[in-house]
Design a protein that fits this description.
The complex is a heterodimer. Chain A folds into three domains: about 45 residues, no CATH class; about 220 residues, MetI-like fold, CATH 1.10.3720.10; about 55 residues. Chain A contains 18 helices and no strands. Helices cover about 40% and strands about 25% of the residues of chain B. In chain B, the strands form two sheets. Chain B has a six-stranded mixed beta sheet, with helices on both faces. Chain B is globular. Classes of the chains: A mainly alpha, B alpha/beta. Chains A and B meet through helix 14 and helix 15 of A and helix 3, strand 6, helix 4 and helix 6 of B. Bound molecules: adenosine-5'-triphosphate and magnesium ion (MG).
């Protein structure tokens, strides 16, 4: 027995090198691109497609492109006309916000992005961060709206472009998440009234597209309020987005709650924690962690869906781009303009999914 | 053997009743799982409950801290009656600790956080004091070096000892154990039983659902045998294991002895 063990050990610790075919460039190509005849065909087809598409695209986007020209010059040339974006940069980004005041939304966005970056680090998550968010959001509101400290008031009808998109998303997502969690808890409530209310709400909202909710918020809601009481359009759209996203978050969170072991509730109860303490300290931290990936997909799609506010005539990023393109000078350059906003959306979504993966890794590490 | 006996020789000095169960009935839907159970537990008494699977042992002790609701009869713990009054349930839970078969530690918290959660949130003890208490009990169950680890980094036996310490941090007067060693690998059973025995020596009132005969013999004042939702026999461990009265207990003992 003993000798056998030793023999086994001596073989396994010997320094064995991988066979030569598996290393080096040729080895890599062989194992990754031509490991079977089927993979070889796929490789050849892929290379062919890339060959046919990449060079022409580079030619169009970079070599033949115009960056600082007028629309007329662009119509003459054959390449991409990035001037459509650069010449209309401020309108696309800020919409009808008064030209000489546009430093204000710029500063507000800077604050928002700064706060977001600061919040990335979990070590910064404490009560002061919550305060600085509240303070920051308030300041941003004042900056945008003006009317105090000598800032010229700017009506919210004039807000537009990227700040509007970011406001709708950040407020929408941060408000929808807690609401969704509460709905999920309500759906599990022992009180039949609360439970049925939550179920009805969730199922109703999930049975309706966001577009119709947005229409309803701008057409139907005002009917319920007495004459003279008007919410501005942005708040109405914001409410519709929050209500919509919350229903989806609720369903995802419910999945996480159902995955929890009964023993966790029992242990919490047996040391005397009440319902709220049990949920807050024991159940939700675990359940929400399980559902990070699906919640982030919901948040990402909600972020992209904010562009639907164009249908109630809010000038978000998509709408400012579209109206630029209706200007005869810049007509016909939609590919360039849409590519540009696609890149903005992509950066934001990529940031979110990247961050969620990091968060998941960190939380896993601390539990291992 | 002589040494084991001495563990309980201290016996019961007081005759204060700490748990009083009168004509308890419990149904799960149509199924009658506890049938007319009456039981009186003295302060400092240690009771081992055994019986075949599905006989209602877990249900009985879970009724005592209201993890399960009973439908008929009365349960009075330390003078407080268990009913729908949340205040009473709160009082009783603060007084009764429970240890589960599968430990049920909170996996997202460190060992220390597991131990301080209850004291800080329920008993509103300041953090510093809660930490001191936690370290005291961790020391007592011999795992103070693991305080900063997470439950998944500990062995089953260590986790169960942490679970015992977590209950003790709430300073309970009564401890309930639901098969605390039956999910453990054999080599870890002893370390957990040792902790329980030392707890018994300090005079804790304990109700333990367990089939560990050695443990029952060394610490229990009484062994209850349950089957079909009833207590069929209640006797001293010597009498119960040496000379079982009921035909079903005889069968049961022959089975756990193989
Ligand atoms: N939540 C529940 N819902 C319905 N029936 C249940 C529930 N819990 C237990 N029972 C049933 O009640 C009876 C008693 O269960 P209990 O868990 O008290 O038995 P036990 O003596 O602890 O058994 P074991 O030794 O297997 O743990 C069993 O028939 C069981 O199937
Ligand atoms: Mg049981």
């Amino acid at each position: 027995m003993r000798t056998e063990n030793q023999k086994f050990k001596s073989v396994s610790t010997e320094n064995v090198k991988p066979p030569a075919v598996n290393i080096g460039l040729i080895g890599w190509i062989r194992t990754n691109l031509f490991s079977s005849w089927f993979n070889s065909i796929l490789t050849v087809i892929t290379v062919y497609i890339l060959w046919k598409t990449i060079p022409p695209f580079v030619q169009w986007a970079f070599i033949d492109s115009l960056w600082f020209s007028t629309g007329a010059e662009c119509h003459e040339a054959g390449g991409a006309c990035w001037s459509v974006v650069l010449k209309n940069f401020r309108f696309i980004l800020f919409g009808f916000y008064p030209h000489d005041q546009q430093w204000r939304p710029l500063l507000a966005m800077g604050m928002l992005i700064g706060l977001l970056f600061f919040s990335r680090n979990r070590n910064h998550w404490n009560i002061y961060l919550a305060y600085s968010w509240m303070l920051g959001l308030l300041l941003m509101g004042f900056l945008m709206k003006g009317g105090i400290l000598g800032l010229v008031p700017v009506e919210s009808i004039q807000w537009g472009g990227l700040p509007l998109t970011l406001i709708l998303s950040v407020f929408g997502l941060t408000a929808a998440y807690p609401l969704g969690v509460m709905l999920a808890l309500g759906r599990q409530s022992r009180l039949p009234i609360i439970r049925s209310l939550c179920i009805v709400y969730i199922e109703l909202i999930r049975g309706v597209p966001l577009i119709s909710l947005l229409f309803m918020s701008s057409v139907v809601f005002p009917l319920f309020f007495p004459e003279g009481v008007t919410f501005n359009k942005i708040i109405r759209a914001q409410i519709a987005i929050i209500l919509f996203t919350a229903a989806y978050i609720a369903e995802v969170v419910r999945g996480g709650l159902q995955a929890m072991d009964r023993g966790q509730y029992e242990a919490a109860e047996s040391i005397g924690l009440n319902y709220y303490q049990t949920m807050r300290l024991v159940i939700l931290p675990q359940a929400l962690k399980i559902v990070i990936p699906p919640s982030v997909s919901i948040l990402i799609s909600a972020f992209k869906d904010t562009s639907l506010v164009v249908i109630i005539a809010l000038y978000d990023l998509l709408k400012t781009t579209q109206s630029t393109l209706t200007n005869p000078e810049w007509m016909g350059f939609s590919a360039e303009a849409y590519l540009f906003i696609a890149i903005i959306y992509f950066i934001c979504c990529f940031f979110m999914s990247n961050y969620s993966r990091r968060l998941e890794r960190e939380l896993n590490r601390s539990n291992r | 053997m002589r040494q084991e006996k001495s563990d309980k020789a201290d016996g019961l000095q007081s005759s204060e009743v700490i748990i009083e169960i009168q004509n308890l009935h419990k149904w799960y839907g149509e199924m009658h799982v506890l049938k007319d159970i009456s039981l009186t537990v003295q302060k400092g008494e240690r009771i081992v409950v055994c019986g075949p699977s599905g006989s209602g042992k877990s249900t009985l002790i879970r009724c005592i801290n209201r993890l399960e609701e009973h439908q008929r009869g009365r349960i009075i713990v330390h003078g407080v009656e268990l009913n729908n009054d949340l205040k009473n349930i709160e009082k009783i839970r603060a007084d009764v600790g429970m240890v589960f078969q599968h430990f049920n530690l909170f996996p997202h918290l460190t060992i220390l956080e597991n131990l301080t959660l209850g004291p800080m949130w329920v008993r509103k003890v300041p953090k510093k004091e809660a930490l001191e208490t936690a370290m005291y009990y961790l020391d007592k169950v011999h795992i103070s070096e693991q305080a900063e680890k997470y439950p998944s980094q500990l062995s089953g036996g260590q986790q169960q000892r942490v679970a015992i310490a977590r209950s003790l941090c709430m300073k309970p007067n009564i401890m309930l154990f639901d098969e605390p060693t039956s999910a453990l690998d054999p080599e870890m059973v002893k370390e957990v039983l040792d902790v329980m025995i030392s707890l018994a020596r300090e005079g804790m009132t304990m109700i333990v659902v367990s089939h560990e005969m050695g443990f029952a013999k060394s610490v229990a004042h009484r062994v209850l045998f349950m089957d079909f939702g009833q207590i069929l026999e209640a006797n001293t461990p010597e009498e119960f294991f040496g000379n079982p009265q009921h035909e079903r207990s005889r069968l049961f003992i022959s089975q756990i002895l193989h």
